[in-house]
């Protein structure tokens, strides 16, 4: 079995679930039902015809032999819905075979012989499907059928007719082969679906992670970062609000991010937007037309955004009043916060400032809504949130999962895939049956009875004609392509011509007899050509084919009732069987959505599990990263252990704020992310009145994000502890990138004349850090050598 | 020219605030430096009294004209000592100015610390490498660059990063004098591969004479 790359991972994914995939289970279950029904139908029809063909004297015997067989079929049908013990079913199937064989010994007449042959032959075929999950049983039962036929043959007439056995053996083998082909296609569909689902799951899980990450960064920005920045600015103001604020920040950071499911009344949330404390208080005039019910994720995103926007009014607008309005319109929910403050030019805001882009707009976009800020210098500011009901529908399942607009598409694609594979399998199976039948039984018949045909060459030409059709079709199917309509209909015409030729060049009384090699074969050809179309088309073809032969028989000879019954049994066992296979392919076509839906449902569960898992893990990791740095600061500030009046505390707050700014800048898509992150840190310290002289030399290259973290961090710390001026440089050489800061007056523990490094935090750390102090100035340098083998360091 | 002789300068810059700042820095110099002429056009360097000034201080960005490389070339060809200073703090511009024969290149942000020293060095035809230029030379990846030793490159880059020869000396475990001699050697190597100009002839000749470089090093 071909298994490479993506398909391999898909196969593993499929196997990791419980056993066979949905398409395979569907195929096995459908075939079992089909087998039981087909056998029951054939047994019913054939035994009815058989009873009709026996003498009235033998009627009671015939009924007493055949009625139990029918009864057993009934039990088997019952077992489809209500499972019965395996041993019982097995015994009933075997008993039905033995009783059928006995009836050949006990009853007389050609009709009985044909009936027995038909029943045993169809049973040997359907057992391969009924017992698809237990192939040994299927094969053993087929073997029993062979034995019964052989025994009945030997006992009823001297000598064993080998061809009768072959007639059972070949269709049974073909039946098994057809099952294996269709199952192989089903498995391939399952694998492809699993691979596709796995990659979709990766993408959706990643999208969900990004959305949670955005929400987390926005929270961090509004809570800890804002608090620490304020402390680091450190003017001698009233700090009484600080402990409570620090404790609230801690709570916000330790809460697991993500959105609770369910709905929320935004009107109730908005009525408790904090107005701020002391001099930062903003008086809100609210006009809220409640209730405004929306998914809690969206509600919280608006609420948190409004909170940040209100604190922005206090910080930047220079006014102490703002108006908050919320209402519903036909598109959904709208919230608006406006002030008459000094306004700003949105184009001039640094892309690294997160208040608007992250806390208001990004947060809203992360849940599938939209937000915008309109402002101009001197013209006030208006912040506008909108939640569309359309978005609500698409997000109904789990709001944190980003879904493409055409959400049902993946599922219908899976259904189409399953459907295509199953029909393809059916066509392949029909082609195999056609070819094997043609070259075993039919070829044998054609050569054995060459003298019967008038003229002989016409039948040979018909044989070759069928072969051409098979080759043409196989040329497409074996390359995995559909048969083009032109080829399909030409081939079908050829097959019909073969049917007519064979019916007309064989003496009418021999039609459907041992000399007729074509009658049964024609149907298989038609099935292989038509299996992917509606079953009606195939039925019409079979009707034309049977009608053609019937007309020939009726016109040339008037058959007796017994002969007619024999013809009927032969027709039923041939064309009826083929028609039922045609119906079966249609069943596959119609039930593919069931497999698709079941697969989609299971996939949805897996996805949700995965997202929750990721979310928990990421949260733990993020919190661990904060425990070493921000959390102790907030705890200290919250419980009054650390005082904002202490310069050391203010410096630590500055450092943490710079580190967070770097983290916020990490996700920006810019050409030189390292410089972008450094600038984010520089903006924080410049805000505290430090002059930073930044210079870059060399050609910027790629630096992995984890290396950037290590490169920037020591520099951010040195910058954060600088009081007046610093020189920050980035030097790119072909082997190395080096970030260095010389701080003219750094509040660092290094004493003058010290020089340390280059040193790595751990032996295998990618980045080495060197520190030198001289007079009041401190020089910190972090460098990363690009190759894994660190070059000889000239220092 | 003796080391205490007064030096005359012509400043070509179209920004009055920068002009007055420079005059203040020169006034604070221990060795007398006189600004004999100044203005927003290169013409000032070609007419008296600017045409006889020892050093031309040239702002690379004059008005709307773009970079004044052709003015620099003509001044160098006339045998003038030109100190280029520029808002453009990128390595390509710096290296190109050296190629054209400028005595040295200064970033405007380095003016306070390095303008006087660079001017005096140009007047004495001594090499002078300020940090912005050192960074440009240390990361220069052009194929026609002179071959530098690992140590020379190292000194250039550390000087660029720290702007302090004392820090470089401490970091590398050498003396400030050694730091200076590495910087001078690099400047001379660049002069040696540069265009035929007064800077080249005088710098190389003086370096060989002082034993700063061996002839076979070049």
TrEMBL record, chain A:
It comes from Prauserella cavernicola. This is Histidine kinase/HSP90-like ATPase domain-containing protein. It comes from the Bacteria. Residues 1-20 are annotated as: Disordered. Residues 304-387 form the Histidine kinase/HSP90-like ATPase domain. GO terms for biological process: phosphorelay signal transduction system. It holds the Pfam family HATPase_c. The chain crosses the membrane at residues 34-53, 59-79, 86-103, 109-127, 139-158, 164-182, 422-444, 456-477, 489-508, 514-531, 538-557.
From TrEMBL, chain B:
The keyword DNA-binding applies. SUPFAM superfamilies: C-terminal effector domain of the bipartite response regulators, CheY-like. Keywords: DNA-binding, Phosphoprotein. The modification 4-aspartylphosphate is found at residue 59. It holds the Pfam family GerE. Residues 8-123 form the Response regulatory domain. Coiled coil: none annotated. It comes from the Bacteria. Signal peptide: none annotated. The keyword DNA-binding applies. GO terms for molecular function: DNA binding. GO terms for biological process: phosphorelay signal transduction system; regulation of DNA-templated transcription. This is Response regulator transcription factor. The lineage of its organism: Bacteria, Bacillati, Actinomycetota, Actinomycetes, Pseudonocardiales.
């Amino acid at each position: 079995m071909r298994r490479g790359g993506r398909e391999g991972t898909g196969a593993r994914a499929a196997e990791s679930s419980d056993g066979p995939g949905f398409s395979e289970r569907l195929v096995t279950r459908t075939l079992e039902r089909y087998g039981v029904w087909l056998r029951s139908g054939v047994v019913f029809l054939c035994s009815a015809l058989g009873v009709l063909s026996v003498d009235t004297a033998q009627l009671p015997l015939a009924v007493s032999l055949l009625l139990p067989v029918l009864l057993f079929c009934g039990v088997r049908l019952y077992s489809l819905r209500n499972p019965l013990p395996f041993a019982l079913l097995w015994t009933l199937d075997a008993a039905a075979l033995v009783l059928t064989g006995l009836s050949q010994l006990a009853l007389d007449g050609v009709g009985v012989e044909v009936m027995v042959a038909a029943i045993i032959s169809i049973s040997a075929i359907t057992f391969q499907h009924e017992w698809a999950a237990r192939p040994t049983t299927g094969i053993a039962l087929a073997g029993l059928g062979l034995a019964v036929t052989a025994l009945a043959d030997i006992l009823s007439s001297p000598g064993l007719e080998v061809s009768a056995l072959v007639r059972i053996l070949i269709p049974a083998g073909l039946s098994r082969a057809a099952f294996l082909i269709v199952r192989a296609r089903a498995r391939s569909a399952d694998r492809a679906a699993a691979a596709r689902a796995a990659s979709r799951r990766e993408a959706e899980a990643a999208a969900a992670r990004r959305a949670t990450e955005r929400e987390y960064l926005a929270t961090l920005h509004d809570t800890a970062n804002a608090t620490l920045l304020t402390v680091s600015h450190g003017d001698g103001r009233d700090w009484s609000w600080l402990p409570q604020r620090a404790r609230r920040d801690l709570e916000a950071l330790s809460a697991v991010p993500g959105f609770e499911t369910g709905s929320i009344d935004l009107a109730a949330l908005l009525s408790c937007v904090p107005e701020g404390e002391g001099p930062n208080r903003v008086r809100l005039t609210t006009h809220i037309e409640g209730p405004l019910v929306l998914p809690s994720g969206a509600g919280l995103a608006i609420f948190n955004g409004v909170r940040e926007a209100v604190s922005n009014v206090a910080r930047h607008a220079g006014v102490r009043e703002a108006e908050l309005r919320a209402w519903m319109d036909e598109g959904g929910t709208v919230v608006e916060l406006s002030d008459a403050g000094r306004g700003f030019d949105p184009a001039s805001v640094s892309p690294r400032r997160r208040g608007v882009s992250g806390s208001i707009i990004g947060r809203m976009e992360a849940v599938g809504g939209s937000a915008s800020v309109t402002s101009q210098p001197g013209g006030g500011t208006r912040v506008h949130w909108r939640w569309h009901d359309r978005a609500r529908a698409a997000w109904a399942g789990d709001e944190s999962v980003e879904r493409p607009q055409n959400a049902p598409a993946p599922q219908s694609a899976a259904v189409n895939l399953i459907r295509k594979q199953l029909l393809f399998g059916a066509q392949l199976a029909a082609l195999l049956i056609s070819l094997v039948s043609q070259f075993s039984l039919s070829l044998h018949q054609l050569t054995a009875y060459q003298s019967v045909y008038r003229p002989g060459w016409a039948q040979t030409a018909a044989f070759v004609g069928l072969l051409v059709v098979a080759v043409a079709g196989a040329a497409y199917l074996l390359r995995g392509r559909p048969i083009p309509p032109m080829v399909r209909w030409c081939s079908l015409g050829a097959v019909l011509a073969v049917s007519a030729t064979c019916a007309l060049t064989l003496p009418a009384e021999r039609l459907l007899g041992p000399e007729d090699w074509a009658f049964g074969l024609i149907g298989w050809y038609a099935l292989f050509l038509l299996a992917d179309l509606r079953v009606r088309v195939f039925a019409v073809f079979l009707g034309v084919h049977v009608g053609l032969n019937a007309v020939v028989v009726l016109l040339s000879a008037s058959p007796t009732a017994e002969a007619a019954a024999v013809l009927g049994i032969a027709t039923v066992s041939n064309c009826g069987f083929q028609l039922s296979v045609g119906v079966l392919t249609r069943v596959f076509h119609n039930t593919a959505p069931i497999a698709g839906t079941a697969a989609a449902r299971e996939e949805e569960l897996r996805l949700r599990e995965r997202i929750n898992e990721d979310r928990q893990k990421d949260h733990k990791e993020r919190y661990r990263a904060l425990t070493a740095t921000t959390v102790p600061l907030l705890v200290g500030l919250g419980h009054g252990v650390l005082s904002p009046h202490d310069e050391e505390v203010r410096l630590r707050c500055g450092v943490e704020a710079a580190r967070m700014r770097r983290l916020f800048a990490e996700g920006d898509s810019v050409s030189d992310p390292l410089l972008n992150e450094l600038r984010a840190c520089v903006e924080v310290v410049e805000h505290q009145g430090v002059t930073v002289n930044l210079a870059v030399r060399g050609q910027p290259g790629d630096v992995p994000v984890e290396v950037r973290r290590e490169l920037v961090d020591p520099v951010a710390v040195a910058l954060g502890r600088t009081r007046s001026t610093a020189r920050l440089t980035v030097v790119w050489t072909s082997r190395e990138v080096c970030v260095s800061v010389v701080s003219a007056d750094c509040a660092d523990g290094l004493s003058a004349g010290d020089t340390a490094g280059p040193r790595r935090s751990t032996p295998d750390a990618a980045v080495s850090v060197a520190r030198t102090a001289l007079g009041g100035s401190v020089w910190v340098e972090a460098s990363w050598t690009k190759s894994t083998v660190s070059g000889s360091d000239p220092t | 020219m003796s080391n205490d002789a007064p030096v005359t300068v012509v400043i070509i810059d179209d920004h009055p605030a920068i002009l007055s700042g420079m005059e203040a820095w020169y006034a604070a110099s221990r060795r007398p430096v006189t600004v004999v002429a100044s203005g927003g056009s290169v013409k000032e360097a070609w007419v008296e009294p600017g045409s006889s000034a020892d050093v031309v201080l040239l702002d690379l960005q004059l008005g709307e004209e773009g970079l004044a490389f052709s003015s620099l070339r003509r001044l160098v060809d006339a045998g003038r000592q030109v100190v280029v200073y520029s808002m453009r703090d990128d390595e390509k511009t710096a290296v190109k100015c050296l190629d054209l024969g400028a005595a040295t290149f200064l970033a405007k942000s380095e003016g306070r610390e390095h303008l006087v020293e660079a001017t005096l060095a140009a007047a004495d035809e001594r090499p002078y490498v300020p940090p912005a230029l050192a960074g440009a030379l240390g990361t220069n990846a052009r194929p026609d660059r002179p071959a530098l030793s690992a140590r020379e490159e190292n000194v250039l880059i550390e000087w660029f990063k720290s702007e302090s020869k004392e820090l470089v000396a401490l970091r590398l475990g050498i003396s400030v004098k050694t730091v200076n001699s590495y910087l001078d050697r690099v400047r001379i190597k660049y002069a040696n591969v540069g265009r035929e100009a007064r800077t080249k002839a005088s710098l190389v000749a003086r370096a060989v004479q002082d034993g700063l470089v061996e002839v076979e090093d070049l």
